[in-house]
TrEMBL record:
Pfam families cross-referenced by the UniProt entry: RVT_3
Segments passing through the bilayer: 15-32
Protein name: RNase H type-1 domain-containing protein
GO molecular function: nucleic acid binding; RNA-DNA hybrid ribonuclease activity
RNase H type-1 domain: residues covered: 94-147
Keyword entries, A-Z: Membrane, Transmembrane, Transmembrane helix
Organism: Acer saccharum (Sugar maple)
Coiled coil segments of this chain: none
Superkingdom to which the source organism belongs: Eukaryota
InterPro entries, per database record: RNase_H-like, RNase_H-like_dom_plant, RNaseH_domain
Length: 147
């Protein structure tokens, strides 16, 4: 297996051997999982065509990606704006809503922090039945009531 993953030889149409091997394994895994979790799943009649088409897409996409672009790793997090805005006594409210699609039940939660990132208060509530939009709106409403 490791030899196939590291194979730099080319197959038909200048396809790297490792790429064809990897994509083939991925599709086999994907189709096995589909059969296990979906009793109506039917394997493709021409799996080779699907695999070759995917490999072609992969090569086309990777041919236009600029590999010389420097990658910059950085942590993504919220930082307060520089002074003089906001004043030192500000608070920040974060809220979120969640939908359980199996039950159509929604829940909301939120947290309020001060300008030093200290937890001030928070909430988590079950709001019964609803949609994801309703969950998000309930989160905003409950958060503003708390603030």
């Amino acid at each position: 297996m490791f030899e196939n993953l590291n194979c730099n030889k080319f197959c038909l149409e200048s396809i790297p051997g490792y790429l064809l091997f990897t994509v083939t394994l991925w599709f086999i895994w994907k189709w096995i999982c589909a059969k296990v979790f979906d009793s109506n799943f039917q394997p493709p009649l021409c799996p080779g065509k699907i695999i070759w088409k995917y490999v072609d897409y992969w090569l086309a996409i990777n041919s236009v990606i600029d590999k010389d672009v420097a990658m910059k790793n950085c942590a993504i997090f919220w930082t307060p704006p520089p002074p003089p805005f906001p004043p030192l006594d500000w608070v920040k409210l974060n809220v979120d809503g969640r939908l359980n699609p199996d039950l159509n039940s929604i829940a909301v939660g939120g947290i309020i922090r001060d300008n030093e990132k200290n937890w001030l208060m928070g909430f988590a509530l079950n709001k019964g039945l609803g949609s994801i939009i309703e969950a998000e709106l309930w989160g905003i409403f409950e958060g503003l009531k708390l603030a």
